[in-house]
Amino acid sequence: MTDAAPLPAYPASAEGFSPVLVRLAGVAARHPANALALLLRLQAQRAELADWACAADALYLRFHLLEPRGRALELQGALQQMAQQVAALPLQAARVAEALGRVAYQQGNYLEATELWSRAVDLADAAPAPRVGVAARVGLGQIHYALGAWHTGLRFQRDALQRLQVLAAPDSYLSAKVALNLGVGHLESNQLEDAERQFSHALAAARRGGHREFEAEAHWYLARAALVRGQWPLATADCRLALNLAGRLQHHWLEAAASRTWTEIALARGDEAAAIRSSRHGLELAERIASKPQQRQAHLELARLLEKRGEFEAALRHLWKVVALQAELERHSLGAPGAPGGAAAYTGISSLVSPSVTSAPLPRVS
Fold it and tell me: Which of 73, 149, 159, 259 has the greatest CB tally within 10 Å of its CB?
């Protein structure tokens, strides 16, 4: 992977970073490779001088710039080491904990993400670091979404919105982030008009601040809302925009997510081959960023698609992956052993495959 893709804009000036870091954040969108190299050099120089506050801030900016491009895991070790160095610095400790929470969430380690984001909230409130606190509360809401607790998740997002609204200066980055997550809660709660309103707010904030990753994500969610309404041309247009933007940004998580929606669109027009291609592409991206939730979803999609084509042995191979991934997710989450996609998925297809296939042993789930 190269550093040629544009990097997301980040309002470093609003976070109280040093003037040097503010300038580097501004350069990143135009000269990504140079900005990343300079941030790494600055981080190392300040660490040698035991200036852990500046070193941690440089690392946090590197993480923020690289995470949307599927490179969060590269910095996990550095963030964990930095957490030890800044334990006595509430502002930097809050930032590092918030970033580590995102790494854990991406991998489906929901219990770890909950602990980290809860710690980030406490540290941010003590620092004070209101913007970090908003971001961490959004994350805690996402955890509840992942477990199907949409009402509780929405409460966290509304809390984040209230805290965002009293910030001293407008923040288009957090405005887009909060609006997207409010919209998700409304969408999953069948409050379609409220969801579409939030997604439109997110799109406007993303364009206002030049946050292309959130612009792409807003188009993806607008596509999902259009699907609910049965507006296939609109869903196709928005999903294509999301896929194109995510691809240019190398935003692998979002491209994998939008690929699932593209699979739905392909199936609606009766193009099973395109649906399978889209699902396989999404699986490849999910594996690249080690996203277990997305891998599980992609394997389940492929199992269903291949079952429909009569390719039962191939479908069952994907279902074994679903069972193994579901078990791993449950070990690293708050529970939900009855979540769809595990052994239940196997049961749903086992009656349709030949006895020689179903007699193959399932992977041990413990």
Answer: 259
Q: What is the pTM of this model?
A: 0.84
Per DSSP, the residues of 113-136 read HHHHHHHHHHHHHHTT-HHHHHHH
- Contact between 199 and 183 under an 8 Å Cβ cutoff? The reply is yes
**How far out from the chain centre does Cα 175 lie?**
17
Domain membership of residue 329 (yes or no) is yes
| 76-85 and 52-66 helices, crossing angle to 10° | 160
Cα–Cα distance measured from residue 157 to residue 138, given in angstroms and rounded to the nearest whole number: 6
Give me the number of domains the chain comprises: 1
In angstroms, the CA 286 to CA 107 distance is: 10
Residue 249 lies in a domain: no
Of 343, 340, 285, 276, the closest CA to residue 307 belongs to 276
162 domain residue, yes or no? no
Structural domain that includes position 334:
291-366
DSSP 55-79: HHHHHHHHHHHHGGGT-GGGGHHHH
Distances from the Cα of 293 to the Cα of 108, 249, 286, 300, angstroms: 6, 22, 8, 11
Alpha carbons within 13 angstroms on the beta-carbon side of residue 198 total: 24
Residue 142 covered by a domain: no
Evaluate whether 153 touches 185 at the Cβ level (below 8 Å).
yes
Q: Are 67 and 76 in contact (CB under 8 A)?
A: no
Amino acid at 55: A
